[in-house]
Write a structure and sequence with these properties.
The chain has about 180 residues and is of the alpha+beta class. The protein contains 3 helices and 13 strands; from the N terminus they run ββββββαββββββαβα. A 4-stranded antiparallel β-sheet has the order 11-12-7-13, with helices on one face. A 3-stranded antiparallel β-sheet has the order 1-6-5. It starts with 8 loop residues before the first strand and ends with a helix.
């Protein structure tokens, strides 16, 4: 039995899970998300809890059991609480701002970078403190929030010498010694 797949998902107050065939829809105070389950997974909705079971013991079925339990759990958390990623931009003269549906970044390139913000995602750029700026990305879909955070980070990954670039707020950049330290 899958250690993740066998866990029961508890539904918080205000969250409902609708099951129609193989389509699961979670509705809550933050919004609505839906997911199509494969044929090898069945879902049972009890009073205030949900349990996923697999139909056979094939390797693919066992893998899907834990995966889809985690996806359904993320849907429940997303529509009730939501997800958030925080990034920090370090670098002298580098800045970003949110205007309408775009994140505009000046990162030392010859042109500003315009990144469109998809529906259901909110971005908030905080004022720079010295040469650090912050960016909060939030939404109900864990997948899209993580994807947008990774996309923003990919424009300037943190470099190991001065630590300049985008990094997650809890990320630790291991610094390398420069040329003068080797002598």
């Amino acid at each position: 039995m899958s250690r993740i797949g066998k866990l029961i998902i508890k539904l918080p107050k205000g969250v409902s899970l609708d099951i129609k065939g193989k389509k699961v829809t979670a509705k809550g105070p933050k919004g609505e998300l839906s997911l199509d389950l494969p044929d090898v997974i069945t879902i049972e909705n009890n009073e205030g809890s949900v349990e996923l079971k697999r139909n056979d013991e094939l390797k693919k079925s066992r893998a899907f059991h834990g995966l889809f339990r985690a996806l359904v759990n993320n849907m429940v958390i997303g529509v009730s609480v939501g997800f958030m990623k925080e990034l920090i931009l370090e670098g002298v003269g580098w800045k970003m701002e949110v205007k309408k549906n775009y994140l505009i970044m000046n990162l030392g390139y010859s042109h500003p970078i315009y990144l469109g913000i998809p529906d259901g995602i909110t971005m908030e750029a905080t004022n720079p403190i010295s040469n650090k700026s912050g960016l909060k990305i939030s939404g109900i879909s864990k997948e899209i929030v993580g994807l947008m955070a990774a996309k923003v980070r990919s424009f300037r990954k943190p470099e190991p010498y001065k630590g300049k670039g985008f990094r997650y707020i809890d990320e630790v950049i291991i610094r390398k010694a420069g040329k003068t330290a080797k002598a």
